[in-house]
Structure formats: structure tokens, C-alpha cells
Amino acid sequence: MIKVFKFGGFAVSDAGSVKNLVKIVSEYSDDQILIIVSAMGKTTDALEKLCNSYVEGKEDAQDILKTIKQFHENIMVELFGTKSHPVFDEIANTFVEIEWMLEDEPHPDYDFNYDQIVSVGEFLSSRIVAAYLNENNIDTKWMDARDFIHTDNTYREGIIDMDKTRSSMPVLNSALQKQTVVTQGFIGGTSENFSTTLGREGSDYSAAIFASLLNAESLTVWKDVPGIMNADPRLFASAQKYEELPYSEALEMAYYGATVIHPKTIKPLQNAGVPLFVRPFLLPDEKGTRIDSTAKLNTDISAIIVKQNQMLLSISSKDFSFIDEHILIYLLQCISEAHIKLNMMQRSALSLSFCFNQDEAKFRKLYDILKDKFKCKYNEGLDLITVRHFKREELETITAGRTIIMEQFSRNTAQIILQ
Ligand SMILES: Nc1ncnc2c1ncn2[C@@H]1O[C@H](COP(=O)(O)OP(=O)(O)O)[C@@H](O)[C@H]1O
Ligand SMILES: N[C@@H](CC(=O)OP(=O)(O)O)C(=O)O
């Protein structure tokens, strides 16, 4: 049966990590392996900068491109030695696509430009990884994810056409019967053959789509952490790893902002009954965390999820009208039009308050829609802390010394906005 492995930016951040990836894959020579890769290291951030510079007509676009080229070339030199290896030409040709674009005027749709430029990161990494697997005698085929993941024209947040995507799986399946396959996470293609991206950090989601539509035995995402922990170990040194988690709990954690898994990852896997393993890339013999329908949840451990850089906006009517159901529907429509995603919401007689990831452009858009009829008050730079299976005494420790701006409790979940 097929095993799907996803290697994120960390797992392809330099030559050493590509070597480690090959070592991991070589342990599975009896399996059919589909490898999904993200862009190398922080390449997506660099390509975003390049896109902004191009669209704004700044002069540093060529310099940014040069740095990205140099970064990939250094990795290739370390992996393949001389520049005579065919991968150098493949990478040069991939960069040509961006170079041609930079010579033209930007398309009026920023998101279109973004996807054509930013998707290149995954093409570069997948070419290098496929070539290095072959170099190490793992018979590997590079395939273009745009031939499989079909999306609409919603650039930067491509919506997958599941039927069309499902119907392209037999081609991939038969390739996997013969060879290891490497393809790209994060990207899809439109019916006009343009690239789309699925939203930042969307490679986990791509991998879940492939794993579910191929009816894979499992999906393993190789990360820079021991598994899913009860808190981000970067923020909480004492974070503990879950041995196992039910799909529902992993989905709740991702939804509230545990960035270890993209929030869209769980649904396709749950629907198809494909287990997910989150395993440490640097300690590949460790089991990591297993997520499936048989897993038991240990509610003795609370999960703490921190979302930083939040904005809290309170909207109230100018004429003392209640925020009744009609007004509520209207406000939610305006919020949706501004593409704001609510992280927490509370209503009183005269106001609707909600917090969302701070984003000046989205806030401005909403403010302009509402400013004539409503009063808007806001706080910026807040933290939203969500605690699943909370214990009261723990909450006191978490909030100690900070000002609580708003809080909300259900049976399983506490949400607190802190200044
Ligand atoms: N509950 C959690 N458990 C483990 N890691 C977490 C958690 N919450 C946030 N993280 C963060 O997620 C990161 C791994 O996810 P990410 O960087 O997106 O991986 P990749 O780029 O390889 O897909 C870790 O470095 C860690 O800081
Ligand atoms: N490269 C894309 C997609 C992705 O999922 O990356 P990572 O697996 O490194 O989070 C991004 O950085 O958004």
C-alpha cells in the first residue's frame, strides 16, 4: 500500500536535511512512497518579498531573486558537487519562469502574481529532492502537482475541485506502482493551467488530499518537533508530547491555532480513515504522535494554544440600536466580505466584539464598510490564549501578571484575550 510522506520547509532547509530525507526514505524500500515537499527553508517568505517588490515596481526585485538563486545553488553544489549534473539546468529553467514574469508588467490581480511567483519555491525543492533520491539509487519520478490538484481561480486560497482531483489519481497511482514519486505541496492548477496556492502552510493539506484520494495506508508529516505537543515547545519549555490523539481533538487544536498542523488537514484524512503520524524529522526512529479514530484522548493534560498579534474590534450602533439577529447577520456578512476570520466573538446589547489576526488591509476594508452606521473601537497587539480541557488553577498561572481583556468558557475550552 501507499505511504505518503510530507517534508516541510525545515526538512528541506539545507543540504544536510535533504541527505537526512533520503536516509529516511531509504528505510522504506518495500513500500510505495509518495513524497510531498514544501519550499526549502524560508524560500516562500523570500518569494513573497520578491512578489511585493515586483508589484510595487521597486528596484530590489533582481537582488532578491539573486539571493534565492544563490541559496538553491549552494545546496545543489553541496549535494551534487560539480555543476554538470542535469539538475542545475532544471533549476535554471524553473527560474526562467520568474525572470520572464519580472520583465513584464504585473497582472492587475495581485493574488494572481503572487501564486505564479510563490509556487516556484515548491518546484525548486521538489526538483532537487527528486534528483538527489535518484543520485542515491532510489528510483524516483518528479511529477507536477498541478496535474493532480485541480482548483478554481481563487488565487492564494485555491478551492480544490475534488471530483476532478479524484479522477486524476489513477495516473499517480500507477506511477507509484513502479517508482517513488516526488511532487509539490501547497500548489494546484486551474483549468487554464495557471498555478494556484492553497494558503500559507498548505502543504500538510495537499498531503492529506493526496493520502485520502489514494486511499493511502498512512500520511506521515516529518516536523522539527517530537510530535503534537500540548503547547508550542517554542513558547512552553515544559510542553509534553501526545502519544495519540483522536482526529477531533487534533482538528480542534489546529482550528484554535496550533500551527503544527494546517487546520484543513484533518477532515480529508478522517473522511477516508487514513491515520496521520506527526514524527520528528531529526529522530526518525521515534514514533511521534498518531492521530486516528481509535486514539484515546488524555484530558489530564490541557492543550494550550497561543495566537499572537490579535486585534480586538468592538462594533456598536450609533443610535443605540440593539445588536439583534438582523444586525448580527449584516455584520457577519460585512466581516466575511472583508475576508476576516473570527478567532473569538462576544455580543452584548449594544456591541459585537471579536478578535482576529491583525491585518491592516482587512481591518480598513471592514472599517470603510461600517464607519457611517457604526462606532468601531479597537485594541491591537493582543494574545488570544485557548486552553482545551482547562483546569482553573492553570489558567491563573497562564494569565498571571497580565491584563485580561475578555474571556469565554465552555465545558472543554477556555479562551482568554490578554494584553
Ligand atoms: N502544539 C504544538 N505541538 C508541536 N509543535 C507546535 C505546536 N504548536 C505550534 N507548534 C510549532 O509548529 C512548528 C512545526 O510546524 P511547521 O513549522 O508548520 O512545520 P513544517 O513547516 O515542517 O510543516 C514547530 O516548530 C512548533 O514551534
Ligand atoms: N511553502 C509554503 C507551504 C508550506 O506548507 O510550507 P511548510 O510545510 O514549510 O509549512 C509556506 O511556507 O507557506
TrEMBL record:
<keyword id="KW-0028">Amino-acid biosynthesis</keyword>
<protein>
    <recommendedName>
        <fullName>Aspartokinase</fullName>
        <ecNumber>2.7.2.4</ecNumber>
    </recommendedName>
</protein>
<comment type="pathway">
    <text>Amino-acid biosynthesis; L-threonine biosynthesis; L-threonine from L-aspartate: step 1/5.</text>
</comment>
<dbReference type="InterPro" id="IPR036393">
    <property type="entry name" value="AceGlu_kinase-like_sf"/>
</dbReference>
<comment type="pathway">
    <text>Amino-acid biosynthesis; L-methionine biosynthesis via de novo pathway; L-homoserine from L-aspartate: step 1/3.</text>
</comment>
<comment type="similarity">
    <text>Belongs to the aspartokinase family.</text>
</comment>
<dbReference type="GO" id="GO:0005829">
    <property type="term" value="C:cytosol"/>
</dbReference>
<dbReference type="GO" id="GO:0009089">
    <property type="term" value="P:lysine biosynthetic process via diaminopimelate"/>
</dbReference>
<keyword id="KW-0808">Transferase</keyword>
<keyword id="KW-0547">Nucleotide-binding</keyword>
<dbReference type="InterPro" id="IPR045865">
    <property type="entry name" value="ACT-like_dom_sf"/>
</dbReference>
<dbReference type="GO" id="GO:0009088">
    <property type="term" value="P:threonine biosynthetic process"/>
</dbReference>
<dbReference type="InterPro" id="IPR001048">
    <property type="entry name" value="Asp/Glu/Uridylate_kinase"/>
</dbReference>
<dbReference type="InterPro" id="IPR042199">
    <property type="entry name" value="AsparK_Bifunc_asparK/hSer_DH"/>
</dbReference>
<dbReference type="Pfam" id="PF00696">
    <property type="entry name" value="AA_kinase"/>
</dbReference>
<dbReference type="InterPro" id="IPR001341">
    <property type="entry name" value="Asp_kinase"/>
</dbReference>
<dbReference type="GO" id="GO:0009090">
    <property type="term" value="P:homoserine biosynthetic process"/>
</dbReference>
<dbReference type="GO" id="GO:0004072">
    <property type="term" value="F:aspartate kinase activity"/>
</dbReference>
<keyword id="KW-0067">ATP-binding</keyword>
<feature type="domain" description="Aspartate/glutamate/uridylate kinase">
    <location>
        <begin position="1"/>
        <end position="279"/>
    </location>
</feature>
<dbReference type="GO" id="GO:0005524">
    <property type="term" value="F:ATP binding"/>
</dbReference>
<keyword id="KW-0418">Kinase</keyword>
